[in-house]
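quick one before i forget lol
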Amino acid sequence: MIVDSLKIFITVIQKHGFSKAAETLHLSQPAVSLQIQNLEQELGMKLIHRSAKQVEPTQAGQILYDRAIEILDLYEDAKQRIHLLQNKVTGSLKIGASYTIGEYILPGILAQFSFQYPQVDIDVMINNTEDVVHCVKSSEFDLGLVEGEVNSKDLAIEPFQKDEMVFISAPTHPLAFQTVVQMKDLHDLVWIFRENGSGTRAYNDRVIEQNQIRVKKSYVFSSSQGVKEAVAAGLGIGFLSKAVVERELEAGTLVRLKVREVPFLRDFSIILRKDPYLTKATQIFIQNITGKPIEMSKLKQEK
């Protein structure tokens, strides 16, 4: 079926390789190569530049890639309309999620959604905010769930939940014994940060800059788990989502530093391409987590 060939072709381009596409699609590499060869024979043009490092679309391949996405969107629309005649919500849903949401918030959301709509196939990719934004823009994900600030005229951003950030330390850290910690007490300490590109890191940097906190030294980890382990080991203090550290706070392996009375809050947000094709499954998922239908007017691309 031509739809299957187009799906394979799109995946090869998005993954920049045949082996990665085969792994993603649970196919053998020869099967993927054969589908691409069949497309090239049918169209009479070379579609992909192959090299030792990666593959890139030719000019003809880029044209097919752009149109293939539109074709698959129309095919999904037809499937959805047919299934709606049977009062079914089916199809696929590709979600990109930043680490905090993907590891600590999304599993509970998906458990409830999957119970209500078991015929929807869901694929989740967890990465930092910067990479999720890139993949939503390139149509690799139907939507993204991020905790960082996103500023892009190509995307619609819809907050769906508030997240509280908390300062943490090991139980043996000197600040752990203080009833109240002032911002000035955070000067000249060792900090444990997430990597650049992370929404959590961006919020860390903003709070430090706004309060002019002097950082003595810092260590960088590419996951919240790494930050937690480093803080618990006494390497330094951290600043993470409360949702990320709740279990450790209850167990006593980490301590929340009581810094001022006003909570540090940020938004968890849905990001979508403007002028997208939204399947019924995507629309219902958004409605489930925001509590309201998506306003399609917000998704119109400015001319």
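fyi The CA atoms of residues 146 and 293 lie 19 Å apart.
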